[in-house]
Design brief:
seven-stranded parallel sheet, 18% strand
Length: 289
């Protein structure tokens, strides 16, 4: 996928949401141990990679999801993080989506020139159940980030964030079920309740996917593959709230005109995908043909 940057790989399980970690599962298929943490070689400087004509492969305005096979604030990555921060700073024209289950480590591992935050960083905490929401969201609200969000994935327990939304700091809430072996059920009622709270405060809510096991009206549905994002889309639960204003700049610090920002292309299969609201669009790799 063209919207993922994994500067390092591997992680240590730290909470309930890690129980059936998809990265551990996929690594096991390659006879690898997901707990082995290493800096990626070819992938570390991906946001700086260029075509032969000198233009960046990652276009101005794209959203890059960081460390999807690890955690950006993992202790074992402390010696690599400053270089990753420098890359994020250099690409001030690109939006970076950071997600962590370790918000308690963040304050001590921000770059020296962070100030009150960088405009091109969207910081998110994982809230797989109410316990983790109440543990991590207060830390999220106290941290100096320009853009903040919540990821309820894998969504394995009901979550209410109504007491946190009045702060006005949370700009986006994402939700997804669990996949692969041992997937725990996601309940439609949990998703609907979370969505209703977001609508009340005009916060964007994205139901990305159902996961392999969805319970609705007391009935268990077993869903595989692309049907998960399709059913999430068909539910109509996703909600576009107040737009997020990323003030992106070029290498000299000048604002980038809207006409110069990346415009996603969505193919036929994209039209009914639950991820569409937060996706960079189709990379036109030809696999859908």
């Amino acid at each position: 996928m063209h919207d993922i940057w994994n500067p390092w790989h591997g992680c240590k399980k730290c909470s309930e949401g890690c129980q059936n970690c998809y990265m551990y599962y996929l690594d096991s298929l390659r006879d690898k141990d997901g707990s082995e943490i290493y800096r990626t070689k070819a992938g570390f400087k991906y946001p700086l990679s260029k075509y032969r004509d000198g233009t960046y492969k990652v276009k101005s305005g794209e959203m890059i999801r960081v460390c999807m096979t690890s955690d950006f604030f993992l202790e074992e990555a402390d010696s690599w993080r400053d270089e990753a921060w420098a890359i994020i700073k250099q690409r001030s024209d690109v939006k970076f989506f950071l997600l962590t289950k370790r918000p308690e480590r963040v304050a001590d591992h921000l770059p020296w020139n962070w100030g009150d935050g960088w405009e091109n960083v969207m910081f998110n905490v994982t809230c797989e159940n109410q316990h983790r929401a109440d543990e991590r969201i207060p830390i999220l609200l106290d941290l100096p980030f320009k853009h903040k969000g919540i990821m309820c994935a894998p969504f394995i327990g009901s979550v209410s964030i109504g007491k946190y939304l009045p702060s006005g700091q949370i700009e986006q809430v994402l939700c997804d079920g669990e996949n692969y072996g041992g997937a725990r059920p996601c309940y439609y009622e949990w998703v609907k309740s979370l969505r209703d709270e977001c609508v009340e405060y005009n916060v964007t809510f994205v139901f990305c996917g159902t996961g392999r096991r969805l319970v609705k009206d007391g009935k268990l549905y077993k869903l595989e593959g692309g049907v998960q994002t399709e059913q999430a889309y068909k539910s109509g639960l996703s909600y576009q709230g107040k737009s997020i204003d990323f003030k992106l700049t070029d290498a000299w610090g000048y604002p980038i005109a809207a006409d110069d920002l990346y415009v996603p292309y969505f193919g036929e299969r994209c039209q009914s995908c639950g991820m569409r609201m937060i996706c960079n669009g189709c990379s036109r790799c030809g696999k859908c043909l």
